[in-house]
């Protein structure tokens, strides 16, 4: 059987396959990506401060985005998480962490939904201290156990029985930066 | 029938090492399979630990073993370590045999294997240590590691190309279309996914969908089909049902598959036309999928006896059914109406395991068991192969059913507007069942590792075997 001579030419097979795939890559990935990249940031989005940016690095390092999306769809079930996400929400994000799994809830607007620093600290130290059925890992290594808190220490108000007896739990730099980042996750207001 | 009778019945009485393949090719191919098997054990053990953590969150509470770090190590290790290496090794065999010559440069192939292992080990350590590009699936590695991997793929592709170029036959057998295609697509795909110039803001997400999807269908599927188009006719001793359908599958896969990456971001702020295009071409994918599945399954027509007498062919049959079913499932998931229930849920995890395990891994095992003894002259114990088969099949079925049910329960809880934690409570018993399936899968890999060792090449000083005539593949 003859397929335009391709069946006898390894050069032709490789050339055609590579060119076709490259053209499709341009059409379906690179050109659409250039267009999406051109969206300006929504008015009201400010670049992150130093600590918030460090916190974003912690978020990436620990793989939080494998269980938490930052991407609200225009569907009734997503209403609790904020307004539907827009391209302008992500303009300054590198990388944007929309995500593909919701083993935990969406965090696109978590800074508005849960603005308590203390709640986030306890939750990171021991998620089951605030949500008994949670399956999130506790990030104990973000915290230091001390006999007595120092002057500048941020003491985490862990409920009784959830921390070693006679110790106070002090937030380390990773915890402080990550919580700054989480509290900075607030969707910018858009006029309807 | 006694167990020894099964052993005798399933062994190939005429098996001798194919003398037409030089010892260096045999050795390097075997090294690819061995490295792949080690990465399989590592990658799936890590997957099992991650699975346990979902119903036992305090299990191994160390930063290096937290869920968020294990998850990318699991995916990258099983994708690039196990699946890629075993398929690349088998592809070397296919291009050499279908070209009727020795591998062009076993030395370069071995160099590439070293680079693969270097990148994989670096990826394992860096991701566990938290050095990551963030949750960008299958491109979490920092770029120097990605560059090493890209170099390995290019070297492997060059060896494949030179082997096919030096073939002793006029025509390029259809297997080699798929294999050469894979080595054209992955470098383009991989480089595109790492270059930054168009990945600002949501541009990154467009590339993410393109990359994570195509890395499956333009790499693993291509190689697995290329191997199947050689291995199945070879083991059955009859030509493929339709050569033309094989070629049709090659072209339609190339035209349809690259277009559908955006179906991972349905209802996202990405351009609506991009999402709709992805859904349309997801339907189009039924053409290459069922052309390939049907064609290869029809090759078995009237040869049911051969399947029952072979320990390799059941893996191929399972893999082909896995290909058809998991791909059809993927198409259905792309529809907006289904996506509402299934997106973001564990259903996607079930789908990816149905495809990468039910399809890719089973095809790879069929080819390893079917082809490796022909190279080395040593067979595994057929009973041990049977134990591997059933542990893997029952394991992956348990896994996929459990995690798919978990996904459906999550989706229903969300659509019903319940609090988020209701979806966690609903899914948790299924996560336990998933761990049971995963345990069976990992156990089957231990058996597989023993079987690979049983098939190791004879040492060079062993007496040479008499040359035998080798039937042509088609």
Main sheet overview of chain B: none
- In total, the number of strands of chain B is 0
Q: Estimate percent helicity of chain B.
A: over 70%
How big a fraction of the residues of chain B is strand? under 5%
Q: Unreliable stretches of chain A, pLDDT < 50, 5 or more residues? A: none
Any idea what the shape of chain A is?
elongated
Strand content of chain A: 5-15%
Structural class of chain A: mainly alpha
CATH topology of the largest domain in chain A: Cytochrome Bc1 Complex, Chain D, domain 2
Category by helix and strand content of chain B = mainly alpha
Report the largest inter-chain contact.
A-B, 77 and 86 residues
Question: What can you see in these coordinates?
Answer:
Chain A is built from 6 helices and 3 strands; from the N terminus they run αααααβββα. With about 190 residues, chain A is mainly α. Chain A folds into 2 domains: about 30 residues; about 140 residues, Cytochrome c-like domain (Cytochrome Bc1 Complex, Chain D, domain 2, Orthogonal Bundle), CATH 1.10.760. Chain A has a 3-stranded antiparallel sheet. Chain A is elongated, with a radius of gyration of 23 Å. Chain A starts with 9 loop residues before the first helix and ends in an 8-residue tail after the last helix. Among the domains of chain B are: about 150 residues; about 160 residues. The radius of gyration of chain B is 22 Å and the shape is globular. At the A-B interface, helix 1 and helix 2 of A face helix 2, helix 3, helix 5, helix 6 and helix 7 of B.
